[in-house]
UniProtKB/TrEMBL annotation:
Keyword ATP-binding: yes
Source species, domain of life: Eukaryota
A GO molecular-function annotation: ATP binding
EC number: 2.7.12.2
Family: Belongs to the protein kinase superfamily. STE Ser/Thr protein kinase family. MAP kinase kinase subfamily.
Protein name in UniProt: mitogen-activated protein kinase kinase
Reactions the enzyme catalyzes: L-tyrosyl-[protein] + ATP = O-phospho-L-tyrosyl-[protein] + ADP + H(+); L-threonyl-[protein] + ATP = O-phospho-L-threonyl-[protein] + ADP + H(+); L-seryl-[protein] + ATP = O-phospho-L-seryl-[protein] + ADP + H(+)
Enzymatic class: transferase
PROSITE patterns: PROTEIN_KINASE_DOM, PROTEIN_KINASE_ST
Amino acid sequence: RKGNAQGKMLQEAATVKKATHANVVRLFGFIVATTSQRPVPHCYICMERMHANLDEAKQVVHDQAKQTATRIESFLGCVTVSVIDALVYLRDHARIMHRDLKPNNIMINEKGEVKLCDFGESKMLTGLTNTRAGTAGRGCVFYMAPERFDPNRFAQKGK
């Protein structure tokens, strides 16, 4: 089981290394090491430092009574555009499907830059139309689209 977790972390690191975009958390490097205290190999990933995730940032914004609706809308607009930019880049250029998009995987640094992280559930895309294959059972249940639970109930229009 530990070997599987290590392999998954190395796969995640390799995936993130391929994704170089302003709205994706940067990977500086990773190592697999053993020490006398830890004879089983452990994987260490060194990534860009981020200040908070979207869930934590949302709480800060709501807790500050001086925030106006305009500032909150501006913040949410920035988050939305940044996440969409990252997802479009991942799909079109890095050929990666994130598969675990949720507030805890949207990070914000001290400059206010918004970046995606946690590529543990991601999948490399192959071909031109591979956008649904191999996604069953991936991601966080609370953030899954309803068609993931009952694909027959929802239909794609226009096709």
